Amino acid sequence: MKTPTLFTALPDYIATPDSMAIDSEGNLVLSCPNFADLSLPGCVVKIDQDGNVRKWFDVPVREDTGMARPMGIGFGPDGDLYVIDNQGWLESMPEVQFKGRLLRIRMDGDKMVKCTVVANNMEHPNGLRIKDGYVYLTQSYLHKEKHPSGNLLSCVYRFGLDEENIEITNTLADPHILTTFVTSNPLCQYGVDGIEFDHDGNLLVGNFGDGAVYKVTFNQDMTVKSNEVWAQNPAELKSTDGMVMGEDGWLYIADFCNNAIVMVSPDGKEVKRLAQSPDCDGLDGGLDQPGEPIIWNGKVIASCFDLVCNDYNVNTAHEMPATLAQIEL
How many Cα atoms sit within 13 Å of 311 on the Cβ side? Predict the structure, then answer.
């Protein structure tokens, strides 16, 4: 395995880093929901080629809750940034449940010129990818629906890039649900999270609690043809948070619970750890509960979420400053 090193220690206005994207100028763009310190606004920052970090903008808050908690992000073909606002991640706060949003934000340099609500009132929106005129979004919980097994249901939504003001019911009646998933692991009832496309246009979705990657294939009319487990190896991969596809077809996954980055071969048969860290504060470059990976300038950059502490996770405490780790490829 490789040894991760410190990419950067983040400014003190960032307590929880999460998702990343790359803008048209090659800058790294990072969403910061800041769940570890709710006095901090949810924001999006830019990191330039020299590693300089600066706040780009605070995400517009939802009027009735007074907050925004950005997670998955991605750029549309016109340069607009699509941002998941996962207010429902804060399960201890009933007032923000079923208040998640998908936002479309148009920037002119450093000035926000428009913010459109694409979809509203989601329970737990999480990861995001954009392809061929659609935005695909994982929702980790569908608690309003009961599976016959008693296990958790979750889903992927698909929206047209120009849709707006869609009211989500968080039930199977929502017409924008592409496909659903069941999490069978009784020790971790947390649903789909990471999302990515392979080089053949198939959708790969990580079922977090089961540590499994599903492959969703499509018919010519983009309806779902199949939805099956594609990669799983409990000895190497415990949880599937964010994931990113490399140019060589290998998939890189943030194993949130195991403080690891895991690789999956293009055929899904080989699942192996690229790097792993013990419980740490991330300041030496350790993987401090990695939430999202991205490939940037020949490296895997991983955001260290560093917040969830229970017996199912290696992580035992939140520390500041927040960090990003890097692994040379």
Answer: 1
